[in-house]
Amino acid sequence: MKIIQAKRTAKDNWVFEQEETLKEPLVLVFGDRYLLEDDNLHNEIRQMYPDGHLVFGSTSGEIMETNVYEGSITLTAIEFEKTKFTIKNTNVSDFASIEEMGKAISKSFDPENLEHLFVVSDGSFVNGSGLIEGMESISGFQTSITGGLCGDGARFEKTLASYNENPKQGEVIAIGFYGDALEVSYANYGGWTPFGPVRTITKSEDNVLFEIDGKPALDLYKKYLGERAKQLPQAALLYPLTVQQLDKQEPLVRTILTIEEENSSMVLAGDVPEESKVQLMMSTVDDIAEGASKAAQLAMQGRKKKPELAILVSCVGRKLVLDQRTEDEIEEVAEIIGDQAAITGFYSYGEMAPFAGKNECQLHNQTMTLTLLSE
Fold first, then answer.
1. Strands 342-348 and 309-315
2. What are the helix (H) ranges across the chain?
3. Rg (CA), the chain
4. 143: how many CB neighbours lie within 10 A of its CB?
5. pLDDT in tens, 172-191
6. 11, 13, 17, 23: CA torsion to nearest 10
């Protein structure tokens, strides 16, 4: 596996960490939404990688090595020496439901020797839970899935993604990796602590939360936030919800993406089924950094080789809590996985990964999620 990384800002030219010619590389381009809206961006990178497979995703912060950037574009080009990959892209506007789109994505891949799927998804129009449910609903589907929902800083205006074209809204890109030579491991961990009374979701529809304990969800949430309610929806990133579904062993964390004042509802990054138990959550800088370390330890368990590439997807809510110490959690990961691994990734509106030791993918919020690859 050969890897080249580079970054640039709106004012600066590309700065490459090393120069090397790659053959038909997978090129992961993560960047600030405003910069990705440049109509010349695709052609600019295409000139650098004429035979490259270019995958774009907007972020709430760019991760490269142990650094976290804002207002930049990071590029990671990977030439696989023993592994084949196929990339499929779809748009939510072409399907009647998110689940149908998920099914179409899975059906588009040849299942033979399909080792792993990595997903870069729009984070505004796509319900991540529904996408995963659709992808895994195909009969006989057993491939592991990781990835993330694209971000837009803390603005929540629109997110962009694309494959071999200028980034646009509503896109979902899935990268399928083939071959026994590839070793993939993954894990996620949060570091958030529940507080306050346990309540029950009494009215919801998919990822829209209407009522908790029979009361308007937004009204109840504002009551707990107090003065911070004026800063919604951004303030919600600091106080996510833990959701315990009746038929699931592990609770999921859900971040609020938008609020609807007219009906006092909240739109979350993933499903919030009725009768689920919910609590508010909070965290500290140290707890979040420790959570990233635990995620790395879980991802390294049982590996045969040291990872060559680490793709990190962390939640924008963690970034807001960490503030000036954002790089702490990246450094914690790097210490565990080793300095031989190139690190790339982004801060997201949602993270996709199975729980440790399991294959069924889940949509998470407020976690550090790792995908570690080696040949």
1. parallel
2. 33-36, 41-48, 98-107, 128-136, 217-225, 285-300, 316-322, 327-337
3. 19
4. 18
5. 999 999 999 999 999 999 99
6. 130
CA 135 → CA 108, 128, 145, distances in Å? 10, 11, 9
Alpha carbon distance 66, 40 (integer Å): 29
* Model pTM score: 0.91
- The one-letter code for the residue type at 174 is A
Q: Which residues of 264-282 are buried (b: 16+ CB within 10 A; e: fewer)?
A: bbbbbbbbbeeebebbbbe
Q: Nearest-CA neighbor of 242 among 231, 253, 233, 234?
A: 253
Tokens of 62: 């760019």
Say which residue the tokens 């937004």 belong to. 218
Q: 327 CB contacts (<8 Å, ≥6 apart)?
A: 66, 67, 68
pLDDT digits (tens, 9 = 90+) for 221-244: 898 888 888 888 778 888 889 999
